[in-house]
Design goal:
The structure is a homodimer.
Chain A (H helix, E strand, L loop, with lengths): L10 E5 L5 H4 L5 E6 L4 H10 L4 E4 L3 H9 L3 E6 L2 E2 L21 E5 L3 H8 L4 E5 L4 H11 L2 E6 L8 H14 L7 E2 L1 H13 L3 H4 L4 H8 L3 H7 L10 E3 L2 E3 L3
Parallel strand pairs in A: 1-8, 1-9, 2-7, 2-8, 3-6, 4-6
Antiparallel strand pairs in A: 4-5, 10-11
Helix pairs in contact in A: 5-6, 6-7
Chain lengths: ~250, ~250
Amino acid sequence: METIINENQRRIEVCVSPNLFPVYFKNKDCIVVVIDIFRATSAICTAFENGVKGIIPVLTIEEARKYQDTGMLAAAERSGEIVEGFDIGNSPFSYMKPEMKGKEVVLTTTNGTKAINYAKDASEVVIGSFLNLKAICDYLEKKDKDVILLCSGWKDRFNLEDTLFAGAVVYHLKKNERFIGLSDSSIAASCLYDQAKGDLNEFLKNSSHRNRLARLNLEKDIEYCLQENIIELVPILKGNTLKVEV
Amino acid sequence: METIINENQRRIEVCVSPNLFPVYFKNKDCIVVVIDIFRATSAICTAFENGVKGIIPVLTIEEARKYQDTGMLAAAERSGEIVEGFDIGNSPFSYMKPEMKGKEVVLTTTNGTKAINYAKDASEVVIGSFLNLKAICDYLEKKDKDVILLCSGWKDRFNLEDTLFAGAVVYHLKKNERFIGLSDSSIAASCLYDQAKGDLNEFLKNSSHRNRLARLNLEKDIEYCLQENIIELVPILKGNTLKVEV
């Protein structure tokens, strides 16, 4: 992007796959919003809403097992299903159980925890989902930095639901004249959200991951993850652990 | 993508950046349509329409110079401008000159020739632009193979005009029941084209490369490149040279 931006304006870039992150990550003094709507980032927001104290995102199942061996609650998902030997995957409903309140959890997922790892050198990494859309937008406006909306995608592919959420953030932030530096991917994502916003589930009816989850009988998860603004907090990466400010 | 496809159905994938090509290029027995609307693939189509015999796409300015030293016509563009020492860049109007008729041309551009190089191991590589949109769609229907629509982007970023053209191809092919395997990126691109098709130039008014070209006084090129179906041929890569079937 070579849009002429003055120093009072902030860029919003949408990175549609973790593979493209190095192409967009030129200014480290930015906030990266990690997005994995179905279901890692929706589950993370839900966990904090239900009193989980911290979440340690790790890349591999082996790392998750090591934490599990120390007695920590451990969650692992691959290709939409809970990994053998773990009690929890990335269904948001798993994180609503009262016994998780006040606990730390280690988490590894197919796409989301990989994206968090890509982003870790940014000055801030936060977790976004439709559930905390307004909270994310308010946070980004308050912080007033360049923003990269990092879609986790599906195994490095473009993915419709993550791009739609990125578009939702752009759609709201572009009303603020400071966030005027829209990249082409931001324009596209915002336009898609504008078309989809009346009925996100209907818009996604032919999308690949929605249908993958539907085949696994996870319609309830899909409907839950597509609700806007039912959670008001913003999970932030502090060291190797996701936390919320209290 | 894990959409269930039977053997009589063909996939259409949109790859929004050359960086993502390895992620989509799993079945080599496919046709890759290389897209660089502003302006390499529009210029290539125009060159053949005006009687150019062959175009050798090369990656570097040095390679183009070597061909030039043998007396061949040579074209080189970087960041929208003709490279010093070359007579031609990638403005389609440069390729309408009568003296180019029957000639071979070597060509290197910022994004387009790089994308052609990425695609070269596919069973077929063809060149698409709005100018030959219908010809490309007819060709793909006739060939009946899986299709990857490869957007050249801008320096590996997502780019609006290339994605719109990819969307135009999906928009037309999806009416054919054999092309039912739409990836998420195909759904998104088709949806964007559907919104933009009434006035492509208006839709692109805030896009980065359109504005980059406008600053270089290339409005005439932009308008030319956004015309649909004024050229009926399909340039195809044969060995290291683009040609059209006669």
